[in-house]
Automatic annotation (TrEMBL):
<keyword id="KW-0067">ATP-binding</keyword>
<feature type="domain" description="Schlafen AlbA-2">
    <location>
        <begin position="21"/>
        <end position="139"/>
    </location>
</feature>
<dbReference type="Pfam" id="PF13749">
    <property type="entry name" value="HATPase_c_4"/>
</dbReference>
<keyword id="KW-0547">Nucleotide-binding</keyword>
<feature type="region of interest" description="Disordered">
    <location>
        <begin position="454"/>
        <end position="476"/>
    </location>
</feature>
<dbReference type="Pfam" id="PF04326">
    <property type="entry name" value="SLFN_AlbA_2"/>
</dbReference>
<dbReference type="InterPro" id="IPR038475">
    <property type="entry name" value="RecG_C_sf"/>
</dbReference>
<dbReference type="GO" id="GO:0005524">
    <property type="term" value="F:ATP binding"/>
</dbReference>
<dbReference type="InterPro" id="IPR007421">
    <property type="entry name" value="Schlafen_AlbA_2_dom"/>
</dbReference>
<protein>
    <submittedName>
        <fullName>ATP-binding protein</fullName>
    </submittedName>
</protein>
<dbReference type="InterPro" id="IPR038461">
    <property type="entry name" value="Schlafen_AlbA_2_dom_sf"/>
</dbReference>
Amino acid sequence: MSMQVRAISNEDAAALVQFEESHFQDLKAIEIPPAKLSNSISAFANTAAGDLYIGIDERVIDGAKTRSWRGFPDQEAANAIFQVLESLSPGTVYWDAEFLESPDLPGYVLHIVVQKTRSVLTSTAGTAYIRRGAQNLPVKGEAAMRALEYDKGIISFEDELVNAPVDWITNSATVIEFLLEQIPSAEPETWLASQLVLQNQKPTVAGALLFADEPQAMLPKRSAVKIFRFQTVEEGINREVMAFDPLTIEGPIYDLIDKAVAATKDIVESIKRIGGGGLQDVSYPHETLHEIVTNAILHRDYSIATDAQIRIYDDRVEVESPGRLPGHVTVQNVLEEQFARNPKIVRLINKFPNPPNKDVGEGLNTAFHAMRRIRLQDPEISERENSVVVFIRHTRLSSPAQIVMEYLDTHATITNQIGRDITGIRRDVQMKDVFVALRREGVLELVPGRRGNASAWRKTTRREPEPGDQLSLLPS
């Protein structure tokens, strides 16, 4: 089998050898049995994709790990690995590979990129693995396999039956109001059964979430939204800086989305932050909040008994949705790929008047475009062990240096704290670096007589900045 060979520099090779094994990458020696390597392949394919580098030796000398490059003598020497890759999921394109070579280093290192698969991929021994940190963990037992299938969206918890009276969805105000708008009209029980959200005289999870007046009574701790307000910009959840007890938003999904977005906007619009003209209102585009909250509620994993959370800080909103990204979706491809973990919920809520998911498949793209339109940074998507968090930061796209100079157009001085507030920079030492860089350019100077925490900066009095001065010294 002939594979692309890419030449890399000795410097890049040295850096590769020192890669930290992590949730997303693994390094192996060429002697690894292909069957054992299949454990890592299964783990990456079942979790969040990853990179395998085969041809890196690791030894422990005097308690310290040392690594070295020792690749395959030729491409054919890796054939057994390619045979395993093909045998695990015949006909499925879930991997790509290349050989790496570097001057003065022996052999070829095989670099395999394993993509996240739609289905569960098992090792050659028939065991499914998942990746947690730098470990490959076997999926043991029926419950664990079912959890993985929920996680990947192979099966959906929305089809599980709920042990609740059938009239909670057949005679609810929600379903009656909904069916009055449908053409042709139908009796609730007949229509719900035809949509497979009522089975064997039991409501399904999808039926409860969409058509019960109070789904939270049927599905406690997994069908509401919790809203927190923290009066700080610091990371983490600190109850000492909570502005009030968490709000609990309840109701059928259609109402839940609107109420959660409205409550979030009300809280956000009460926040003031320092800007170029003093205290300014904090605001985010309605489309951004709406689409991200909609996504978190419609596509969450309802098998996890945890409510969705919206955490509002002084400079950002965090929206946490229980469950990892489903199917083959990853943080890297989430804006291009589509995969509905809860297809019945997604389809049926689209039948409501003015549905929250009107542009199916375009929600997150709409959220990103809305932030760019008002020159705020893109939302950041992070996948955690059992959830997905979207960070919506109130940070401008201008460089920190430009923001500082714009602030000084209307203010005499600026402190490190004010600088961090208006630029979104977290650490005081990073903010100081911005000030020092501007001083080197001759456009900023320290205010005489102010030291320590009282230190401040002002535009230089030695000369006025010229029109050609370069102020975008640091990336935004």
